[in-house]
Amino acid sequence: MSEILLDIAGVNKRFGGLQALTDVGIRIARGQIHGLIGPNGAGKTTFFNVITGLYQPDSGTFRLGGKPYSPSAPHEVAKAGIARTFQNIRLFGEMSALENVMVGRHVRTRQGVFGAIFRHKAARIEEAAIRARAQELLDFVGIGQYAQRTAKYLSYGDQRRLEIARALATEPQLLALDEPAAGMNATEKLALRELLVKIRNEGKTVLLIEHDVKLMMGLCDRITVLEYGKQIAEGLPSEIQKNEAVIKAYLGGAH
């Protein structure tokens, strides 16, 4: 069996009188694309936000790479090795594409504020390395030619690619993507699929929320399904498509 990278169990989350998550868990194997699906209101985004530190769980156990981690805040989760994107694009619009990725890369820098202020030799060397790595990542996601373009002037699909490059710049163990295909046309979705396969082939692990069921079934190695804040299925896409509870709750009989 593949090594489990992310192992979460027993997650409960309540908002006032609403029990949003009830004893939810997920196990993601290293080097796979793992999908998280469910109908509207299923608790996908809540669970995703708990995993990545935006919401604090009422209970649950969290292990990443075999070690416990605390989803107490987004920066702690990033330090543990989880990088995420958001459904609504969150770029520094006035910065260049290259600068956006460099910001992500600075999470892993050593020189800190002192080096940035005084620009000593070690800081300059590190800054050059950050710039070079940022360019490599832009090339990797397919927008290297737009390195100096202001982020807000990139096409929608290229902005999504830029977000992924910035997330990869943190050297994450797990890349968590929140509806990256939202708003994309068919051509952009195909390009996104190719990019995610490329990322997986580089040995990266991906957690993916997406409403496009056809895309998920053709892309993910395994899928977890939520309904009303509870897990109702987990397995291979072929198994999920035949699961009666999933068909009733989410797929509506459309395979």
Task: Report what the structure shows.
The protein is an alpha/beta fold and 255 residues long. It has two domains: 1-81 and 172-255, Rossmann fold (3-Layer(aba) Sandwich), CATH 3.40.50.300; 92-169, no CATH class. It is 40% helix and 24% strand. It contains ten helices and ten strands. The chain has helices at residues 44-51, 74-80, 97-105, 112-118, 121-141, 156-168, 186-201, 213-219, 237-242, 244-251; strands spanning 4-15, 18-29, 33-37, 59-64, 67-68, 82-84, 174-178, 205-209, 222-227, 230-235. It has a six-stranded mixed sheet, with helices on both faces. Strands 2-1-4-5 form a four-stranded antiparallel sheet, with helices on one face. α3 (97-105) runs parallel beside α6 and α5 crosses α6 (156-168). The longest helix is centred in the middle third of the chain and has 21 residues, at 121-141. The model is unreliable at 112-118 (pLDDT under 50). Residues 6-253 form the ABC transporter domain. It comes from Massilia phyllostachyos. GO terms for molecular function: ATP binding. This is ABC transporter ATP-binding protein. It holds the Pfam family BCA_ABC_TP_C.
